[in-house]
Recover the amino acids of this structure.
């Protein structure tokens, strides 16, 4: 089973340009409690390096591109996020790393819960231990 799960977001745009609508529990499979976005990422910077115990997120690259590595403890898969029409759904207990950000990359993230540091696993060894339990 792939750990790269995309949801297609319909482009409602017309000759004036693009318009994409996101509706919680309609085209995104969870209630959205938090939204954040990553932009102006410096050259050669990698981010992430954590998993979440409970959180589900949807990552949408609304401008530019970046690459994401997802790892479920058994296998690792990489994906380019390079389209505002695609949301990458990342469930709990998936280690993620983001890199190769273009200068113009704006990565929008929708999250199922409020920010909670106790939901993070920031140590890869600890992540593998949790997975094997
Ligand atoms: P972090 O999750 O480590 O960023 P990334 O995984 O993209 O490298 O977050 C960086 C800092 O911002 C960290 O101190 C936690 C804080 N933060 C919040 O306060 N609220 C949030 O919603 C997020 C995502 C991070």
């Amino acid at each position: 089973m792939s750990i790269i799960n995309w949801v297609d977001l319909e482009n409602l745009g017309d000759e004036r340009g693009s318009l994409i609508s996101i509706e919680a529990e309609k085209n995104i499979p969870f209630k959205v409690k938090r939204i954040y976005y990553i932009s102006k990422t410096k050259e050669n910077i990698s981010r992430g390096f954590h998993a979440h115990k409970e959180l589900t997120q949807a990552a949408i690259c609304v401008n530019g591109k970046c690459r994401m590595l997802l790892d479920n403890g058994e296998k690792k898969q990489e994906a380019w996020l390079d389209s505002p029409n695609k949301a990458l759904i990342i469930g709990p207990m998936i280690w993620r790393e983001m890199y190769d950000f273009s200068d113009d990359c704006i990565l929008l993230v929708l999250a199922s819960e409020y920010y909670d540091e106790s939901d993070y696993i920031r140590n890869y060894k600890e992540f593998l231990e949790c997975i094997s339990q």
